Amino acid sequence: MPAAARLRHRATRQSAAQLGQVTIQALRERNKLKSVVDHFVFSTLVWFGHDEYPRWNAPVCPLVAGLTREQGDFILARITQAARAAHVPLAGKGCHANLFVMVTSRPHLLLRLWWAKDRTMYDTRNGIAPVQQFIASRRPIHVWYNAGLGCGGAPLSPSAPENALAAAGVLVEGGGGVVCSQGVDTLLRNVTALGFSSVIIVVDTKQLRHVTFGQLGAYVALVGLAQVNTAVHDGAAPTILQLFQGTDHPPQDLTVWDRALLYALYNSSPASTLQVSEINASVLKKIAR
Predict the structure, then answer these.
(1) pLDDT in tens, 66-111
(2) Which end of the chain is more exposed for a tag (fewer CB within 10 A), N or C?
């Protein structure tokens, strides 16, 4: 083989080897990122063993109280911006509030008085112990989710006796407690979907000394639009949920990971039993860009 040909052959082999190494490295990096994404999703979104994650299927109507008009409008704008970016259904003007953000220096007193006035404000199908724990919480921000099953992602209608019982937390013998005209759940598709009927967020101002309004608005938007685990995150993925976890430099706004999570939740299909995989794949796609 002529010398020139040998040089070309050697160069081709070296290029192929380098390309193979780059490909292997890229695959390793993507698999590593996928592992972090999977952990982030499973550790952040609350899942009760259903085939779908709870979310707003009915239009959300936020209300902010305890702040000046300007401050309240700022928090409302942050919630609305996050909702629109994720395609969360939003109610129009004059709607009845179902996402409550209450800002106070006396959260325990507020919650006790509120509950005394409205004994139906909490879902008590699991007893009153969870309610008492929520009221007594010492966290800077208390969050309570009221959720129930609906048909095809729509709010549950109490028109049928079975549905009225299900709305009250009573399961009908021989069935799941919700009767939908579209049929019944199967191994591949859910007729019913778990949706919020209301979310209550109470902010303790005594614990917000180093928190900006931008951070507060971002945190409230995330916990108000998705049922999340506000416990300690290991820091593998940046999230606004690190705001009250002693992090030296917590995010100033919703992170790319937070926005990807909200988008994935609201653009997945709750009817599909593969929703969990859809959400993970969607977050990975946005983070890997």
Answers:
(1) 999 999 999 999 999 999 999 999 998 889 999 999 999 999 999 9
(2) C
Question: pTM for the whole thing?
Answer: 0.80
Quickly list DSSP for 75-109.
HHHHHHHHHHHHT--B--TTPPP-EEEEEES-HHH
Could you write out the DSSP letters of every residue in 124-178?
Answer: -TT-SHHHHHHHH--SSEEEEEEEEEEETTSPPPTTSHHHHHHHTT-PPTTS-S-
For residues 281 and 30, give the distance between their C-alpha atoms in angstroms, rounded to a whole number: 12
Q: How far is CA 225 from CA 21, 125, 200, 256, in A?
A: 43, 22, 11, 16
* Burial readout 202-223 (b: 16 or more C-beta within 10 A, e: otherwise): bbbbeebeebeebbbbbbbbbb
The SS3 of residue 209 is coil
Q: What residues pair up with 64 in beta bridges, in sequence order?
A: 101
Q: CA 63 to CA 240: how far, in whole Å? A: 21
